[in-house]
Every structure is written in C-alpha cells, then in structure tokens.
Amino acid sequence: MRNGMTHLFIPGPTNVPEAVRRAMNVPMQDHRAPDFPELTLPLFDDLKQVFGMTGGRVFCYPGSGTGAWEAAITNTLNRGDKVLMSRFGQFSHLWVDMAERLGLDVICVDVEWGRGVPAYDYEFFLSKDDSIKAVFATHNETATGVTSDVAAVRQAMDTCGSDALLFVDGVSSIASIDFQQDAWGVDLAVTGSQKGLMLPAGLAMLAVSDKALEAAKSSTMERCYFDFADMIKTNDLGYFPYTPPVPLLHGLRASLDLLFDEGLPQVFARHHRLAEGVRRGVHALGLQLCAAGPEWYSDTVSAIKVPEHVDGAEVCRIGYERYRTSFGGGLSQVAGKVFRIGHLGDLNDVSCLAALAGAEMSLADAGADIELGAGVAAAQEYYRKANAGFAPETPAASSVGTAVSR
Asked: How far is it, in rounded angstroms, from Cα 253 to Cα 23?
C-alpha cells in the first residue's frame, strides 16, 4: 500500500486548493435559471482585476488556453494579415504553427531556447513594415522557464508608431506573475484555468481590449464556437451561448476569493520568493537553468539542465515511480536535456523544499554527481531569511549558472 499523496510539481495542471475542490462539489444546476447571473456576472468583473484591466471584457470558453489562442486570432484578424511572432520554446512554437495554419502571413523571429521575446528585433521589423497587423508575445515560455518583458514589446511598438494589435500568451503567468494589461497596452491576453488560477483544466480565459473588440467587427475570418458576438450577446445577461462547465465556475469563484484574500501583490511576491529558493537550490547543486540569465528567470517554472550523461526523462520517470513526485519533462528541442519544476499556484516554501528533495534523489539515482541535501539546504537558508523579513543577497554573478548556446 502506498501512503500519502503523489506530489505534483509540474507547471500545470497545478495543485487545486481544498476550498476550491469543495466549491466545485455542487449538484448540477440550471445554467439558464434566473439566478445564474448572480454567479457569472461578478466572475467576469473580477477576472478583469486579475488581468489588470478596466475596460474591455473577459471571455470564458470551455476549453484550454489553446482554444483562447484560436479565439483571439479568428475574431480579430483576416486571412493573409501579416503578423510578427517569435519562437523560443515549445509553446511559442505552437502559437506560430496555429497562426500559419489559420492563414496568417507570419514573420517569425527564431530565438535561442533559453531567451525570450526579442523586443529589439521586433522594433527593427516594425520600423521597416507598417503593414504588420498584430504582434505576438509569449509572456512565460513554460517549456524553458523564461519570462519576457511585455512592457518592452509595447515600448518597441510605440517607438515605431505601430497600430498593430498586441497578443500575449499568459497561460503560465497570469495570476502568478504581475500582469498589467492596461498599462502594457495588451489587446488580447490568454490564460487557462489549470495554472495560476488553481483549477482543473477546462476553462480558457481571454481578456480583450476595447480596441480588439472594435477590430472584431470588421474581421472576416471564419469562426463559430469562439465568436465574440455570440459571447457578448449572452454574457451581458450572465449566460453563455452553450452549456458552460458550471462546477468550474463555482471553483473559479472560490479561487478568485483566495487570490484576493491574499492580495495579488502578495501572490506575485510569494511566487518570486518560492522561485528564488528553487533557483538557489539548483545552483547549489552545481546545475544550470535553461533560462540564459537572471533577466529571463521565470517565477512559475524552472527548467533545469541535466548533466550531459544524464537523461532528463529518466529523472522524471524515477521521480514518479520511486518517489511519487511528478516533474515536467523536457519538450521538443530540450527533450532529455532538462526537467522542470513547476512552482506556481497553491504551494508554499515547504512544498518547494519537497520538490528539491525529490529532484535531488531522482537526479542522483539517474547518475548525476550531486551532493544530496545541498540544494535543499541552500533553499532553506534563503526561505528562513526571506520569511524573517531579511532581503537575502543576490548570489555573485560567478555563482549563477547561465545556459550555453545549443
């Protein structure tokens, strides 16, 4: 008999808080009942706060973040429109692939995996071509543990006088890393329920600016299920154009209440603290992150490079089978080269210490020459000081691992 729980340290789905699980345990109800808007209308308003927006509106589609990607494109652009994108990980790659398959004319800037959105390159292309209709940015690349500067993308657009729409994938950042849709001039931002919102997968959230809503009126791309017009017509009354996942909506209410009770600034600070402890543990083991430098470090997921003779997939297998701990595997170009620790959602300092302890044992069993306990000890020291109100010093540059070109 295997006692205890299986530990989940992947970057999504994330752990669901007990209060959220209880909130979803409801009998089925009439989603067209007169009192149903008492649940839904406040959700639409409160999600705006999570995205950092005041105008526009937030749509909730049954589906994953990928569905919201498609909704954003098909409602606001036309086939043949020229768009500017970048590819530096599996999920930014998939967004490029979708744009091409939907008939967009994609200018794709390929970037070393371990770096993020190349704002400087974006400025170059935008300054040379005023026919670009949309600019895409993956805020947090889940495959490589890289967070990009969306504000820098907006600055590049403004410098060039670009009137393009700004699309942002915030699937593994929103509700965990500070996101400011209004301040950054983001027109369409995507996230999913299974990440920072701490729910099961099944809800795709799309925050749409007034500018993007206006663009939807003249877009001619085919859409049906994801049509903004259908959603607006029914959402305004508190309903949906099709059957919504009602238990997830109850869970979303509980999740938002937890986030607001903690305070969004405190949520972001907690994720930074937890991530920094994990990073210090990784460096203390003599390992490097896939992220090419501190300016790219993600506060929701760390992709950890394994030694050359170690298989990252084997680390994940050992962790799961021997220690009942799930880590994220490497994807595409970094398959076998990294494993990932997700540190977002419902977790705390001791959760991250458990992740590091499991990672140390799995690495050692997979053949890595590491000192057991070194990573955990470094993270413990950091968390103790951080929770006592001290600001631990940033490690010297020489002690921070940086990714090499591949």
From this structure: 8
pLDDT at residue 394, rounded to an integer? 55
Specify the pTM. 0.94
Nearest to 383 by CA among 293, 259, 270: 270
Instruction: Give the model confidence (pLDDT) of 213-259 as tens digits.
Output: 999 999 999 999 999 999 999 999 999 999 999 999 999 999 999 99
Residue finishing a domain among 260, 291, 307: 260
Name the β-bridge partners of 191. Answer: 205
Compute the C-alpha angle 192/229/133, nearest 5°: 75
Range of the domain at 276: 263-393
Both tokens assigned to 166: 């700004």
CA distance 14 to 259: 15
338 and 290 Cβ atoms separated by less than 8 Å: yes
pLDDT at 159: 98
Q: Are 85 and 95 in contact, with CB atoms under 8 Å apart?
A: yes
> Is the separation of the CB atoms in 279 and 289 below 8 Å?
yes
The total domain count for the chain is 2
CATH number for 108: 3.40.640.10
Closest CA to 327 of 342, 314, 337: 342
Instruction: Please write the tens of the pLDDT for every residue from 111-153.
Output: 999 999 999 999 999 999 999 999 999 999 999 999 999 999 9
Q: Looking at residue 396, what is its pLDDT?
A: 44
Q: Are residues 104 and 194 located together in one domain of the fold?
A: yes
Instruction: Spell out where 177-290 has E strands.
Output: 188-192, 202-208, 288-289
**Nearest of 201, 160, 181 to residue 68 by alpha carbon:** 201
What pLDDT digit, counting tens, does each position of 285-330 carry?
A: 999 999 999 999 999 999 999 999 999 999 999 999 999 999 999 9
Q: Which of 260, 293, 308 is the endpoint of a domain?
A: 260
Nearest to 303 by CA among 38, 74, 115: 115
Q: Are strands 140-141 and 82-87 parallel, antiparallel or unpaired?
A: unpaired
DSSP 6: P
